[in-house]
């Protein structure tokens, strides 16, 4: 493809990214470095501040069955309640990623079953990549950037909740050294979604063709946007391998939670995605 | 198709808020 077409594709995906993802990397980094001018970020660092911060987390919360909770003691309830908030936000994020996927030129022309498969397998990878800009070595922004939750607090939760975020922090801290910006991210996310090797795809060829075009656009974008960063394109593609391992581990952890936590009900949309996944 | 009902819905609906 012509360079001009690839630049147009990059612009289009960046615009879609800005349209569908409310918290950009630029905004997140401004909040994390304290450059937003206000001090509105609420910090959750222990159980007390978690309870105080819960009002922020109430976005479309799944009602939790009190009679189940009462048998478990207050601390367990807080963890489960927090986990439910995370699920609500994840389900909302899946909707955002779906809209972004639909904006990738050619995506909606693919077989509908293949669109489903690409989302089913791609969406957790995308969500994990999108966590990276929200994180630093000390913690992560949550709730659209209104809250900063410390890494130490997440590590202090009871097992297996404490094991859920640590691998994402380790990945994100390394990923952030690549210093991608939002316009790079938009192309990278599209590349992840358009993976032709997802299990059960019916018609791989058109997906690979779409991915190849986006890969060209990404390669050109990185050359122009990061002229001094050697091998950035190759380094970024290598991250896709690490990402698959993180997703596999994440899914296994969720399956474990489902077995061990009596009160855990997985959000129906997330259930759909997790079912028979790896 | 039944197995991925919500994903199908999300893909086929417009950007209007879907009841999650």
Short summary:
The complex is a heterodimer of chains A (278) and B (20). Chain A has twelve helices and four strands. With 278 residues, chain A is mainly alpha-helical.
As a percent range, the share of helical residues of chain A equals: 55-70%
Structural class of chain B: mainly alpha
Largest sheet of chain A: 4 strands, mixed
Name the helicity range of chain B: 40-55%
Number of E strands of chain A: 4
Mean pLDDT of chain B comes to 76
Strand order of the largest sheet of chain A: 1-4-3-2
Q: Which structural class fits the helix and strand makeup of chain A?
A: mainly alpha
Number of helical segments of chain B?
1
Oligomer: heterodimer
Question: How much strand content do the residues of chain A show?
Answer: under 5%
Give the termini separation of chain A. 35 Å
Shape of chain B: elongated
Largest interface: chains, residues each: A-B, 22 and 13 residues
What is the helix/strand order of chain A? HHEHHHHEEEHHHHHH
Pick out the low-confidence regions of chain B. Answer: none
Detail the poorly predicted runs of chain A: 59-73
How many strands appear in the DSSP assignment of chain B? Answer: 0
Structure explained in plain terms:
- The complex is a heterodimer of chains A (about 280) and B (about 20).
- Chain A has about 280 residues and is mostly helical.
- Chain A contains twelve helices and four strands; from the N terminus they run ααβααααβββαααααα.
- In chain A, about 65% of the residues lie in helices and about 5% in strands.
- Chain A has a four-stranded mixed β-sheet.
- In chain A, about 30% of the residues are buried.
- Chain B has one helix and no strands.
- Chain B is elongated and about 15 Å long.
Architecture blueprint of SSEs:
The complex is a heterodimer of chains A (about 280) and B (about 20).
Chain A: H1 3-20, H2 25-32, E1 42-44, H3 47-53, H4 66-70, H5 74-102, H6 112-131, E2 135-136, E3 139-142, E4 147-150, H7 151-156, H8 166-176, H9 182-193, H10 204-225, H11 232-260, H12 268-274
Chain B: H1 5-12
């Amino acid at each position: 493809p012509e360079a001009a077409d690839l630049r147009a594709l990059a612009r289009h995906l960046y615009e879609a990214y800005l349209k569908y993802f409310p918290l950009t990397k630029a905004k997140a980094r401004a909040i994390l470095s304290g450059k937003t001018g206000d001090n509105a970020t609420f910090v959750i660092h222990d159980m007390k501040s978690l309870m105080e911060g819960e009002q922020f987390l109430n976005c479309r919360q799944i009602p939790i069955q009190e009679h189940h909770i009462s048998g478990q003691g207050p601390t367990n309830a807080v963890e489960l309640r927090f986990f439910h908030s995370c699920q609500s936000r994840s389900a909302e994020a899946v909707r955002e990623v779906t809209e972004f996927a639909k904006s990738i030129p050619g995506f909606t022309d693919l077989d509908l079953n293949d669109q489903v498969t690409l989302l089913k397998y791609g969406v957790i990878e995308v969500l994990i990549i999108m966590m990276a800009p929200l994180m630093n070595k000390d913690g992560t922004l949550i709730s659209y950037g209104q809250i900063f939750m410390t890494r130490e607090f997440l590590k202090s939760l009871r097992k297996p909740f404490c094991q859920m975020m640590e691998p994402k922090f380790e990945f994100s801290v390394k990923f952030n050294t690549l210093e991608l910006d939002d316009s790079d991210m938009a192309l990278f996310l599209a590349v992840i979604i358009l993976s032709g090797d997802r299990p059960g795809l019916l018609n791989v060829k058109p997906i690979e063709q779409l991915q190849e075009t986006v890969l060209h656009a990404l390669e050109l974008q990185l050359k122009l946007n990061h002229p001094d960063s050697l091998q950035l394109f190759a380094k970024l593609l290598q991250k896709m391998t690490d990402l698959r391992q993180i997703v596999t581990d994440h899914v296994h952890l969720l399956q474990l939670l489902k077995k061990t936590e009596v009160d855990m009900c997985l959000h129906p949309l997330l259930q759909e995605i997790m079912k028979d996944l790896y | 198709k039944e197995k991925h009902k919500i994903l199908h819905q999300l893909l086929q609906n417009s950007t209007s808020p879907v009841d999650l």
